[in-house]
Amino acid sequence: MITLYHGSTLKIEQPLANAGRADLDFGQGFYLTSLRSQAEQWAMRMQLIRAQETAWLNVYEFDKKAVFSDGYYRCLSFDAYDRSWLDFIVASRKGKEPWKGYDVIEGGVANDKVIDTVEDYLNGTITVEQALGQLVYAKPNHQICLLNQELIDHHLYYMDSLPLMTE
């Protein structure tokens, strides 16, 4: 089991795979991270954007070993900001839905700093080689997207929701 976090303006005891937008990095699913600080920052950002009273850190345990090793679920994992990750993100941003058919996808986040490079590549401003050269310097981060409700119901266990103190 690994601990995963989801930053939000809501307590989420029963996550839904189909509640998010389809044009995100890894498609329409429930996004989590193993990095607590990343989830906290996201929750506080959403609190400001949505003008909500509270930011929440939702905590879960995930049976990653069972999901990735039993062969029942279709899993995709990106270990680096490489060509396959870049192609996948670009296809998602173009609405091609490369995530269709997967149950879980794990890899780096196309965050504010990384997305500039992705968009420059998408717009033809830089080549794939230049994009990959810039991505080498990106600070590592993590996201895991659960796209299958059955997987969420059987392998993601809600632990707690912690209110975050904001300034």
- Major sheet, described briefly? 4 strands, mixed
Structural class: alpha+beta
Number of domains: 1
Q: Strand-residue fraction?
A: 15-25%
Shape: globular
What is the H-and-E element order?
A: EEHEHEHEHHEHE
Termini gap? 33 Å
Output the strand order for the largest sheet: 2-6-5-4
InterPro entries: DUF3990
Protein name: DUF3990 domain-containing protein
Provide structural commentary.
The model has no long low-confidence stretch (mean pLDDT 87). This protein has one domain (2-164). It has 167 residues and is an alpha+beta fold. The chain has helices spanning 36-50, 64-69, 83-93, 112-122, 128-135, 149-155, and strands spanning 2-8, 30-32, 55-62, 75-77, 104-107, 143-146, 156-164.
Defining traits:
DUF3990 domain-containing protein, single chain, DUF3990, 167 residues, alpha+beta, 6 helices, 3-stranded antiparallel sheet
